[in-house]
Give the backbone structure.
Amino acid sequence: MPFNQPSPVLFQLLGFLNDAAKGVVSTSEEKIADINANAPVGTTQALIEQGAKVFSAIHARMHDSQRRVLQVLGRINRWYLDDMKKGDVVEDLQIAREDFKRNSDVIPVSDPHIFSETQRMAQNQAILQLMQTYPQAFDVNAVLQRVLKQMKVSGVNELMPNAPKPMEMDSAHENAAMALGKPAFAYPKQDHLAHIQSHLNFATDPMMGSNNLIAPKFIPQVLEHIKQHMMLWYTNQMDGYAYADPSIKREKYEESKFADKIDKIMAVASTHVKMDTQQVFSGVVQAMQQLGQVMGQFAPQPAIDPADQAILQASLAETQRRAARDQADIAFKNADLQASVAEKDKQRQVQVAMNAENNLTQERIKTAELTVDELKLRKEQEQTALKLQQSTQRNLGG
């Protein structure tokens, strides 16, 4: 039987529907493959979300459908639980019909906004970058554990064991634990001053806490532990002064009717605690400063790049050369100054000698002049006497 060939219009319509369907349900995997490995996390996540809008809408509706199914199952259990046969999984569980009286809070634990492992990995990568920028705002262990669990790494607790739980111990066992690098914790009911004294005695002992083998791990731990004891002692002292009045009840400060009165009492109590602190912790502060100096000896030195090390050595060599040159210049100037001083001293001595000689000559000249004048005076006196004698003789002869 003769049949007409398939219409080209139908083939074009089929191709159009195929292309339209691809545009609706396509993802951004092709674009992500072309992205540089150093591209920002936000850009990658934006491409994933842009290419998976349809999947996210479907996933959100499936999440809501699952919530409704769980509520229906809870309602059925509330009506017919005793008449139903329990399966092997829940056979040993103590479940009653009353457990399903209120099932309005039955919701899936999944996140309707997360529908792929790629999104979770992108979120974890963003968290890691933020943690590098703001390390003080994140719990490093919690972030790493979340990333490892998302990567399906087995034995996360073995790789990153949890922090040890606080345990109340006496001061001797606390010293031993801190010497091994384990933390110790202070508790309100302990004798804080006795604990501090015991820790400081151990820390300042050169055979124990100050030993080079123990100090690097022990001193940082004990300083933090002593700080805890000091703060607990401070709060106990303040409470002792503030609540000595029986009319002030111990209750939550934000719920107390005497908040303004408590503030005034605390201000007065702080004055007494300050005087107590000066008497109690005067020796403690000195010992802690000593421990800080000991700890400074074990502080790790920052690693220096070889190029920077070479520059530093060259700078030190140049500095030493300049220092040696400056010392030589100073020695030369000192020698020149000494020679100049010696020459000036010699000239001064010669000048003094010449002045002394001139003074002696002048004295001799003056002495000679006085002698000549005296001789002239004597000669004149003798002549005057002779003339007087001759005159007298002539007068007698006449």
The chain has a mean pLDDT of 77. The two ends are 221 Å apart (CA to CA).
